[in-house]
């Protein structure tokens, strides 16, 4: 129905940007920050009821050392609890990478660097796992999905899903990719919308075209998610709305790493 059930975090966060629900139902947020304003540059883990369980990073402080984050855009956890955080919200910014942490929040390593190579990223905006445990990274400013293993080794890159802002993969390895910035100078000729395909083969099956797909402004869904009935949700920043796309028939689904 869209009725709001609960809210938390007021006064705690600066710019909450990425959202992940793990297999235990815990809610993770990535706060990209607003310069040095309090609350930003951290990843937080909450219970379903909003109790804060873990914080990675230091509020209002961006950095590159162990335990510090720089503009975290998204977070995802593997089945064994390992935490992967995409960092770097600015195009060609000083640090575009993935930070890897243990399930208890201890720093392990950084993966990748800023650039256009096979082991490089530019403003990685979202990240998800497939059922094989591969990382799918929305390497937005390079107009591609990067596929790495959990140690940061290159596997493949795909351009057929447009300019990816958000990525979600379900337990059948169906991949949903939100493209909020195409058509304009960033990716001319590609319409904005949500592309649905296979994380195994890379084939695109469906395209949910945005209502402003040919607007030069960044206007489409940035975040994307799917519920247990197969409804597809897009979080649209410019229009400040959550849109729902209903399948013609119920399609039972769940997250790839649940």
UniProtKB/TrEMBL annotation:
This protein's record includes keyword Glycoprotein: yes
Pfam families in the cross-refs: NHL (PF01436)
Gene3D superfamilies: TolB, C-terminal domain
Keywords recorded for this protein, A-Z: Glycoprotein, Repeat, Signal
SUPFAM superfamilies given in the database record: YWTD domain
The name this protein goes by in its record: SMP-30/Gluconolactonase/LRE-like region domain-containing protein
